[in-house]
Every structure is written in C-alpha cells, then in structure tokens.
Amino acid sequence: MASADLRDELTCSICLNIYSDPVTLPCGHSFCRTCIGDVLDTQEGSGAYKCPECRAESQERPALVKNRKLRNIAENIRSTHPEQEEAGIPCTYCDSPVPATKTCLHCEASLCDKHLKKHSKSAEHVLTEPTTSLENRKCSVHKKVLEYYCCEDTACICVYCKAGEHRGHQVETLNEASEKKKEKLRNILQKLTSQREEAEKRVQSLEELRRQVQGKAAGVTERVTALIRDIRKQLEALEKRVLSEISRQEEQVSLRVSDLIRQLEIKKKELSRKMGDIEELCDITDPVTVLQGRESDRDDYCDTEEDTETRDIKVHDAGDLDVGLISVTLHSGLAGIVTGITRRRRVPEASDMLLDVNTASDMLLDVNTASDMLLDVNTASDTLLDVNTASDMLLDVNTASDMLLDVNTASDMLLDVNTASDMLLDVNTAQTCYWM
C-alpha cells in the first residue's frame, strides 16, 4: 500500500508515468520537464499560463526549477520497477491495462486498436497520439475540447468560441487547418530542399575546383622546380667553364712571365760578370796593363743583338687576360641558357614572365644599331685595358654585382640566340670585335 502511495506521489499528472527529469512550478506542483513544456507551449497564445493541477495563472511563462530530490527518488523507483514503465497510456474502455494507440479529443478517451475500430469516424472526433494531457487541448474559457481554428485570430477555439466572440470569422476544423499548414510547410520544405541541393552542388563544384587547382599547382610547382634546378646546373656549368677560361689565360700569362723572367735572370748574370771584369780593370794601377787589355773584352762589353732583344723586353710583353674573350664566353653561355628555356614548353600561367620575341623586339640589340658599341682591336687599341693601368676599371664580381646580368632579375634583357644571332660573339669569329 505504501509502495502504491509512493508511486502515486512520483507520477506525473500529465503523462501518468513516473517523473522523468522532474521540475517544479512556482505554485509547488511538479511535472516532467517535457510534459509541462508542451503544456506551456500550447498556452503561449492564450495570454496566460496555468498550472495543470491547481490552475494557478501567470502572465509570464513560469520558470521551471529542477527538483533533484524528486528526480533521485523517481529514478530509484524506476530502476526497481522497470516493467511498470512499459505499460504506457492504457485504453479507457478496457478492463485490463491495454496500451492505447490513439486518444479522441472529443470523447476525451484513449483507445486501443480494438475500440478504435468501433469509434466514430466523424470529423469532430479528432484523434491524436495517446496522451493524458487533455487540459491543454481544452478551451481555457469554456473548458471544451478545441475543435476549430480561427484563421483571422490564428487561434484554436471550441464550439462555444465559434458561436461567440469568433462569430463571422473564417473558421476551419483543426484537421483542415492543420492540413493547409502542412501543405504550406511542405512547399517551404520543397524550396528549402531545392536550395540545399543547389548549395550541395555548389559545394561539390568548389571541392572539384579546389582539387583541380591543387593538382595543377602541384604540376606547375614540379615543373618550375625542375626548371630552376636545371638553370642552376647550367649556371654552375657555365661558371666552371668561364672560370676555367680565366684560369687557362692566367696560366698562359704566368708561363710567359716566367719565361721572360728566366731570360732576364740570364741577362742579369751576364751583366754581373761583365761588371766584375770591368771593376777588376778599374782596380789595376798599372796603365800598361789596363791599356793592353784584350780587344775582345772591349767588344764583349758592347751590346750584342741578343742583348738588344733582352733589353727591349717590356712588362706588357708578358700579355694580359683576354677580358673580351671571357665576356664572350659568359654572355654566349647566358644567352644559350635563355634560348634553352624559351624552347621548352612554357609553364602555364607564367607567360607574362617569359621573354617573347614578338613583345621584346624593341629591346633586342641589332648589329646595325649597335655598330657604335662594338670595340675593334685595330681601332680601339688605345682603349684596351692594361692590367697595371686599368686595375681600378676592371669589373670585379664582388664590386660589380649590380651591373652583371642575373637570370632571375634580368630575364627581359638577356639576348636570345634566335633573334640576336648577329650580335652574339663567338670565340672563333670575335678576333677583331670584342664586346666588353
């Protein structure tokens, strides 16, 4: 008996089940949070909120206070009597507890499948899912079941409301109004579905575009990396070739200088010998001995043809670095690298960066317009640089970096072999014309 009384105290008066997440209204009555929430939602347009138990009214939606103690007790009962929770809402007309499948708002009764078959099919008998919360489906004024919907006031009304304050208004049954609203909602749902599908298509298109761009970027990156790597290798090879030419010329000049030094050293020894003989004669006090010296010695003191040749040796006879040849080697090598690049398949989206023959014709030097700039050995001997006198004018890699053409920063200025072949100097054809 005590257990039954305790169960009654823990039963929600709306769903007739043990409390689930119980909350308490300001009046002190407790309900399941979901049950009382549904009731308050239906009362929202009525202008006042009422407690399903005591009918206490509130102009504002009452605050729901969580009842932790009641929840703990309810959970304890539910765990010890789980089979009683499965009964659900019983049929009003069955003697034994049979679960109801529908609730008639007009009859205010819950029906099982057997009694539902015998129930009236008229429109005024509105059927809903099984529920015990019939209070929120009754008119708050006349306490009658809500059967109609006033389209002008957008409110659910009972039969007395229809004949009273809503007389002359456009009124529909709840089912009719519900179906119309469902139709509108279906149309809205259809539009939203169409918009969602369109958005999904755009998302897929953008995803595909991103994949394409990523693939293209990977390909371009690979090609550019390979191109830069190849250019770097060619530049390194060109550097070795130019430095090798410089070393060759340096060695050649060094050998020539060594040979001249050897000749001059021999001359110095010979002169030292002659100077010693003369000093000996000068030291002799006997004039006869001095005057009777060999005539051959006198001839030996004079310059021979070999001595004249040795005396005519000048510093510049050792030669100098052929800066013109080095410049030709460097410029022709750079032009060859650029030509190789332009002959390759052009990298997509980089056409504006590559030198085009058609768009760069104004910048290419022509042999007819550059004749004044070419230096000839015969006509420019006075301008040839000497190592000793022009050291301040020679361009050094460290001091003239801003003037040297770099592939990365001067691609638009490099000469192309195909369009400037008349101007490129070859080692074999540049004996009389050097480009500094």
Automatic annotation (TrEMBL):
What PROSITE patterns does the entry give?
ZF_BBOX, ZF_RING_1, ZF_RING_2
| Signal sequence range | none
Q: Which UniProt keywords apply?
A: Coiled coil, Metal-binding, Ubl conjugation pathway, Zinc, Zinc-finger
* Domain of life of the source: Eukaryota
Key word Ligase present in the record?
Answer: no
Provide the B box-type domain boundaries.
134-174
* GO molecular function per UniProt: zinc ion binding
> Residue ranges of the RING-type domain?
12-55
Keyword Transit peptide attached: no
Q: Which residues form a coiled coil?
A: 171-281
The protein's name is E3 ubiquitin/ISG15 ligase TRIM25-like
